[in-house]
User: What shape does this take?
Amino acid sequence: MRTIEWHAGGASDALAAGGPEVWLIDQTRLPLEQAVVRCRTYQDVAQAIRTMQVRGAPAIGIAAAMGVALGALAAPDEPAGFFGALEQVYTALAATRPTAVNLFWAIDQMRRRAQALAGRPVAEIKAALVAEAQRLADDDVARCRRIGEAGEALLDDGDGVLTHCNAGALACVELGTALAPIYLAHAAGKRLHVLVNETRPFLQGARLTTWELMQAGIDCTLITDSMAAHFMARGCVQKVLVGADRIAANGDVANKIGTYGLAILAHAHGIPFYVAAPTSTIDLATPSGEGIPIEERAESEVTHFRGVPIAPPGVRAAHPAFDVTPHRYVTAIVTDAGVLYPPYGESLARAVEAGPAQPHLESMAVPSGGRQTWRA
Assistant: This one.
């Protein structure tokens, strides 16, 4: 199944015969158990986002869109009550996690769709919102495919590629962002070896990225986060490829905690540092990374793992879930609109304005002075 699926319910969908449901792969139980979370209400979806049963910027955006659709179907059938209820749905879903801009982008897409149909019968608006959520899911799949096609050209046969966290199919609807170029390069016959950072403290790399790559038959090695410099120094890493939860207008990138350190290490070793994300992750309203809110998660996620204490009782712990990588350390940003190079203030704005896969964006594929070839 996809990471996120809409099930309509009724006689045509016996598994969800009780009514519409959003099905999510439960990412907290991977890799040891494959389970599905069945959300019947927007509150269920909000809880799944908050607890990271669904995670990854594009995935939580699509989950939120489907949560809005569930909330719309349960809302009153008279216009005032309907739109009032929708505002409560938007607010509840937007409050789940603060950093990934795709969450707010998707909610805004659903709000715009509902507002555009104001004055139409409420039943028609409800059906349109269900259709819009499914359209956004299909659009995410298409965007990831374009990211994969654009990024695959940056990977050479024999490359060692280091990635952090999980920016694969589990972080999206299908295929992924940072892993999409790797999947397509593998399909094209390129021999890659992927070094996967474990990604403390939630272990998305260890639990999720390795599971995905092994399912796809891609050669990979799990390493602890503190091993990255060691393998870079020994020439085992030719490219670093990560995802993003929000990209500011100047190209500063918020991604899973630990990404900033990797970017500095890559810079020190002369290794290109690529960020892969859909244009929906670009936040032109935030001028720089200083304006990106950083989610602070529970200390227990650092001091415990799956309920088991791994630190002395009572010790204080810090848990910023994300950090911000300054744009000067980002070699290029791989998007559904093409590969973007500095100056990011210009290339990002053009990409958002043009939309996905516009031919004139090909001029962004090579920075002034030509593209460098890097080796550790």
Remarks:
- The first helix runs from residue 42 to 50.
- The longest strand covers residues 21-25.
